Amino acid sequence: MNFVRRFSPLTIVIIMILVQVIESLVLIFSDTRRSGLIYLLILNVVITLILLSQTRNYQLRRQDFIRKINDEAENSLNATLDNMPIGVIRFNNQSLEPEWFNPFVDMVFKGNDKIINRDDIKLILKNVNDDQYINIGSQKYVAELDSEKSLIYLIDATKEVAFKSEFNDSRAVIGSISVDNYDDATDLITDSERTAINNFISTFLESFAGKYGIYIRRINSSRHYFFCDYRILEKIINDKFSVLNDFRKSSAEKNIPLTLSIGVSYGWNDFPAIGKVAMNNLELAQVRGGDQVVLRENTEQARPVYFGGNSESRTQKSRTRARAISTALRTIIAESDDVFIVGHKYTDMDALGAGVAMKAFANMCGKEAFVVYDPEQLLPDVGRAIDKMNESSDGFTHIIRLETAKNLKKTNSLLIMVDHSKTGQTLNFDFYNSFEKVVVIDHHRRDDDFPEQALLSYIESSASSASELTVEILQFHDNNRRKMSTIEASIVLAGIEMDTKNFTKATTERTFEAAAYLRSRGADNDLIKMIMATDFEKYKKVNEIVLNSKVILPHIALGLGIEHQKYDNITTAKAADTMLEMAGITASFAVTQHINGFISISARSRNGFNVQTLMEKMGGGGHFNNAATQIYEKNIEEVKKDLIELLKERENEK
Ligand SMILES: Nc1ncnc2c1ncn2[C@@H]1O[C@H](COP(=O)(O)O[C@H]2[C@@H](O)[C@H](n3cnc4c(N)ncnc43)O[C@@H]2COP(=O)(O)O)[C@@H](O)[C@H]1O
Ligand SMILES: [Mn+2]
Predict the structure, then answer these.
(1) Residue 16's pLDDT is what?
(2) Best mutation site among 381, 545, 626 for ligand 1, i.e. most ligand atoms within 8 A of its Cβ?
(3) What is the DSSP string of 505-556?
(4) What is the pLDDT of residue 120?
(5) Strand partners, 437
(6) What is the 258 CA–ligand 2 centroid distance (Å)?
(7) CA-based, 20 to 30 A from 621: which of 170, 241, 312, 465?
């Protein structure tokens, strides 16, 4: 009968009426007495009432049961919310005030002696969007947002963060240390003196390794390798690779002009790749002038980080490298159909001079060569030099416009980039990109953005100019007595004169040797003066900036362009040059609005003041004593403020 309880009262009444009808029919047809029918009716009514009462009891019990289950479920959900190690916060999405939160949230914030408020909600929401860990007290949390329900879930990630940092700390680090100028310093000394220098180097580096717990191995007198994990590297980074300064000072005390170049890389698992990046970094540290560290993680997207670079590049006394480059370049030119030479954007006299010398070199190798310029980016002195070239000889001087060069270029042509090594600075990127074979000859410290397909690169940051480097390469050609005209020699010498400010800056004995060679090829002083003469109006604009200058910090001059006036590169550069000539000034900065809209800084310095790293911090670059940058989307005042802040930071670091 149990199943009957599940019927509804109406169903039971209908069933019982049917039963009554059937029973009545049976009795009528069996001729039974009328009183029997009445008894039967009464019996059915009683049965119906009993069944209805049972059904009602069943329904009531079922509701109680469901209610009880619901109560239990609610209690257990509340207990879970109360006890689970996840914070749940409901907030008002207009005011951001917390409306409800579970005890875990209370515990997180009470642990910090406070109750969660709208500022906490704001902070959490900011970090949800930035995908950051949230620091609350000593713990770290990740937050998930259910924006539809205005709910925040707060998950304790302290252990995860600790594990991650443990994991990162154990990354492998490989480093290579090279002693700069070791060969020059030990060239003309006795064996016992050399042994003393070797001992000094080994003892110093062993004590450096001991201090940090590094494993170090000597490969030869001037080269060491070291291994450690990232935890140790981090300490060395926090000390800003003070090993560089310590080594420079200790060797100076011993009257040995030595510095260190260090290449370091780190990463997971792939040790050969980490080692290779470390070696590339060492090469970069050396070509940037030595006395510095280049650090880059072994990942595709990692960018190099530089430390040091606090001494000017030392001159390589030996010209062995120039000879080797000259030989290698002859082979590359011999295998090419012809040669195109480009300088940097707004090609200057040094770039043009180096181009003319390389054209002569290619001609000596029996190949046709073209120096490419862009009439849209023509500086006045370069324009005058090109006009002079065109006046002389047969009218076709192989100094050609970019558009002509694009048409002449063949699949097997060679591109020589002179006076720059950043693809972003090349005269025209598409033109550069159309070459499969590229050679780089430059006197700037090497940076990233170096041409990937370079077959050969000759970078000597201690050289005065690119023109000087190319003259040396030229001199090592057996055929060097031929194929350089007076006007060509004059342009190359003008290039050296421009970068050395008439032999008063960055000159070495090699600069004068190159100049003597050019003089022997007929370089003409009057011609050079005519080419390099300053335009009268430009001179006035240079003075405008100089007159608007101030000594902003001890020995540091800052000149500003006049508001709403625009200046070209050379005017700004010349103003910085002029300010540096003033008594007591060791660094000068000219800040102007460029004719192309951006803000331009030219920076010049002397006496160990590194303007290159300063300009690098502002997105530019250049040399130790001669650097610049271009800044978009800021005005002169903002740039001036940033520059002064960096200069003050530099003062504090000293
Ligand atoms: N964004 C950059 N990244 C890396 N390096 C950069 C960047 N922008 C500039 N540089 C390099 O910084 C130095 C200094 O540049 P500058 O513009 O201040 O000065 C150069 C020329 O404008 C200037 N110059 C050219 N002709 C003359 C002239 N007739 N008289 C005086 N000054 C002149 O001389 C600087 C030439 O520098 P060089 O090419 O390095 O020899 C520079 O290295 C930029 O490449
Ligand atoms: Mn140049």
Answers:
(1) 82
(2) 626
(3) SS--HHHHHHHHHHHHTT--HHHHHHHHPPPHHHHHHHHHHHHTEEEEETTE
(4) 87
(5) 414
(6) 29
(7) 241
What single DSSP character describes residue 269?
S
CA angle at 298 for the pair 296 and 299, rounded to the nearest 5° = 105
User: What's the burial of 434, exposed, middle or buried (CB within 10 Å: 0-12/13-18/19+)?
Assistant: middle
How many A from CA of 538 to the centre of ligand 1?
A: 17
Q: How far is CA 538 from CA 318, 545, 574, in A?
A: 41, 11, 10
Ligand nearest to the CA of 620: 1
Q: Confirm or reject: Cβ of 468 under 6 Å from ligand 1.
A: no
- Global pTM reads 0.64
Interval 94-127: pLDDT, tens: 888 888 888 888 888 876 667 788 888 888 888 7
Residue whose C-alpha is closest to residue 140's, from 175, 168, 165: 165
Which residue lies with its CA nearest to atom 42 of ligand 1?
622
Whether 2 has a pLDDT exceeding 60, the answer reads no
140 Cβ partners below 8 Å, 6+ apart?
Answer: 133, 134, 156, 157, 158, 160, 161
Q: Which ligand is nearest to the CA of 569?
A: 1
Residue whose Cα lies nearest atom 41 of ligand 1: it is 499
Give the containing element (helix H, strand E) for 457: strand 454-459
Structure token digits, residue 648: 């003050």
- Read off the tokens for 330: 């002859």
| Confidence check: pLDDT of 314 > 70 | no
- Say how far apart CA 98 and CA 610 lie, in whole Å: 53
Binding residues for Mn(2+): 344, 348, 350, 419, 443, 499
Q: Regarding predicted confidence, which is higher, 310 or 548?
A: 548
Task: Say which residues have a Cβ less than 8 Å from residue 582's Cβ, sequence separation at least 6.
Answer: 557, 588
Q: What is the ipTM of this complex?
A: 0.96
Pairwise CA distance, residues 591 & 558, whole Å: 8
347 lines ligand 1 (CB under 6 A): no
Span 201-238, pLDDT tens digits: 999 999 999 999 999 999 998 999 999 999 999 999 99
Contact 600, 634 (CB under 8 A): no
Please return the burial class of 624, using the count of CB atoms within 10 Å of its CB with bins 0-12, 13-18 and 19+. buried
Residue nearest to atom 2 of ligand 1 (CA): 620
Residue 302: CA count within 13 A, CB half-sphere: 17
C-alpha separations of 608 from 74, 247, 601, 626 in Å: 75, 17, 20, 12
Q: CA-CA distances (angstroms) from residue 93 to 89, 118, 121, 141?
A: 12, 10, 10, 21
- pLDDT value of residue 423: 94
